[in-house]
Amino acid sequence: MTTADVTPFPNFIRHLIAEDLKANKNEGRVVTRFPPEPNGYLHIGHAKSICLNFGIAAENGGICNLRFDDTNPTKEEVEYVESIKADVRWLGFDWGDRLFFASDYFGQLYQYAEQLTQAGKAYVCSLSPEEIREYRGTLTEPGRDSPYRGRPVAENLDLFRRMRAGEFPDEAHVLRAKIDMASPNLNLRDPVLYRILHAEHHRTGDQWCIYPMYDYAHPLSDALEGITHSICTLEFEDHRPLYDWILDELPVPCHPQQIEFARLNLSYTVMSKRKLLKLVNEGQVRSWDDPRMPTISGMRRRGYPPEAIRNFCERIGVGRRENIVDLALLEYCVREDLNKHAPRVMGVLRPLRVVIDNYPEGRVEELEAVNNPEDPAAGTRKVPFSRVLYLEREDFLEDPPKKFFRLAPGREVRLRYAYFIKCVGVVKDEQTGEVVELRCTYDPETRGGYAPDGRQVKATLHWVSAAHALKAEVRLYDRLFLKPNPGEAGDADFKTYFNPHSLQTLKSCRVEPSLAGAAPGSVYQFERQGYFCVDAADSKDGALIFNRTVTLRDPWAKILQAEKK
Ligand code: ATP
Ligand code: MG
After folding, report:
1. How much distance in Å is there from the Cα of 37 to the middle of ligand 2?
2. Which of 65, 93, 233 for mutating ligand 1's site (highest number of atoms within 8 Å of CB)?
3. Is 175:192 a contact under the CB 8 Å cutoff?
4. Segment 374-402, tens digit of pLDDT
5. Among the listed residues 547, 19, 13, the one whose alpha carbon sits nearest the alpha carbon of residue 290
6. How far is it, in rounded angstroms, from Cα 117 to Cα 227?
7. Distance 139 CA to ligand 1 centre (A)
8. Are 440 and 422 in contact (CB under 8 A)?
9. Which of 33, 49, 213 to probe ligand 1 with, by most ligand atoms within 8 A of CB?
10. Residue 138: phi, psi to the nearest 5?
11. Which residues are catalytic?
């Protein structure tokens, strides 16, 4: 297991499983599953569920299955199945040979449904979907029995078999459990178990024209796989009596225990696959793996390490109360990991040309730069220095306010790994007045960054040599939504608060030459700027594209603090 880097915190599920093991329940076995519906890409909420299910199994010498809940053929696609497998693997988990599909069990599920019908526990109902809804009642009013509830067993069986044989159009009939139309729990008011759907399934083709409902297929799939602990999110708490009813009424191999926990909600983003699909389809983002997306593939493309995501999932804990986790915590985990592992380089996002007047033309020095101060084993590299450099435009102000210690006319600063330089002239565009070039001098005595006479400077700036630097595109990302809880606009208009500046593209950045041939997906710290990842899809040799993974510090935290004052 690759999760040894994460310290497990106690939580109620770990506690409960420890108790079960102590009591030798399930003969000491722990079998869990992660059951995604292949109707979209996985998001960070799913990562929480994956870490929990695979983590708890691994900690207890158990196993965790990957099972696709593919009971809804109209919304499910092979593309999603493949992306989900890739994401789970990338997160560091292994389902071994236990890759399952609910559709593997369609034959068995059908047999069970006939058994329920035979036992008088299920009936064929011929109300329309609207009528079924109407008859169901509300939270305050009991439901009414369907006029078909009293159908004799033989007729139910005959109709159910003919539903399967394809004799009826969609929605003509459904198979319903016969439980209690007056139950205070709406899920027990004769829930639908099977519906007619003349639709091609991505695995079973046109073999079936009736499909089981999730609430029916799920407990049975769990039981057929010998799951001991069926861990799911809180919204299924009210479904648990139905989960148990189905398993109690049928001769299943075991009766797994359903345990619910609070789903992860993250600020400044949305998490439902339906909403994420909308962002993709309507072009707000480029794709499911757009680095702004809270999807696992988006985070991978943005440069988040899987260790950081696992660590985050452990830190947020597992409880039974809904809350919204601050995106800043996820970013903190990302920084913490990258700080240890990402090599340092110099990159200038908004270049300003600087000429060192007293530095000989044509001369190039190879200066030694530290690859990672957190990791001495990472060693050093050479960075070329020459007469014409690029500095960060925002590191110069012609008329600096009091607390601005960086470059200004007449002022001396240190160039990282290089020399002290002093600004002696400012060249402007005659038309616009914009600063287009700085003239500086350097002090040859300060090589390495220290003055023999002990004089100090207040700033150290990053730079690149103009003749040697590589041109690069850098994509800066900001939060996807402007509000911590974009859902508060109401379900329909969650896009009202879409952040129009969530992507900013800088086309003429310059990075140090050591980045030539940088591997797609690799992450670097651009000194003083943040962490940047070589875009795995669009970056090419000779046309580098970087995604900003995360800034060095959180500018939003500062803004919020300032607002509080
Ligand atoms: P969504 O509402 O985002 O479409 P879902 O619950 O429909 O999610 P599934 O594919 O059914 O998606 O989810 C697979 C598993 O992941 C389920 O066990 C579900 O409970 C869990 N899960 C989904 N969203 C979250 C979340 N935000 N936090 C924790 N677990 C989640
Ligand atoms: Mg679902």
Report:
1. 6
2. 233
3. yes
4. 999 999 999 999 999 999 999 999 999 99
5. 547
6. 26
7. 25
8. yes
9. 49
10. -135, -175
11. 37, 263, 273
| CA–CA distance, 277 with 273 (Å, rounded to integer) | 6
pTM of the model: 0.94
Contacts of 176 by beta carbon, 8 Å cutoff, 6+ apart: 122, 123, 124, 125, 146, 190, 191, 192, 193
Q: What is the largest CA-CA distance in the chain?
A: 103
CA-nearest of 173, 179, 149 to 161 is 173
Q: Could you give the count of Cα atoms lying within 13 Å of 280 in the half-sphere of its Cβ? A: 17
If you search the block for the tokens 């996820």, which residue do you land on? 330
Q: How far apart are the first and last CA of the chain?
A: 47
Q: Name the H helices within 228-357.
A: 240-249, 273-281, 296-302, 306-315, 327-341
Residue 197 amino acid letter: L
Residue type, 535: D
How would you classify residue 193: left for phi > 0, otherwise alpha for psi between -120 and 50, otherwise beta? Answer: alpha
The tokens describing 554, both together, are: 């959180």
Residues 6+ apart with CB under 8 A from 521: 300, 301, 303, 533, 534, 536
Q: Specify the 3-state DSSP secondary structure of 220.
A: helix
- Which two tokens mark 438? 């700085």
Q: What is the DSSP string of 351-363?
A: EEEEEETTSPTT-
| CA nearest to 69, candidates 105, 36, 107 | 36
Q: What is the DSSP string of 24-52?
A: TGGGG--EEEE---SSS--BHHHHHHHHH
Q: What is the pLDDT of residues 273-288, one digit of tens each?
A: 999 999 999 999 999 9
Q: What sign does the CA torsion over 85, 88, 94, 98 have?
A: negative
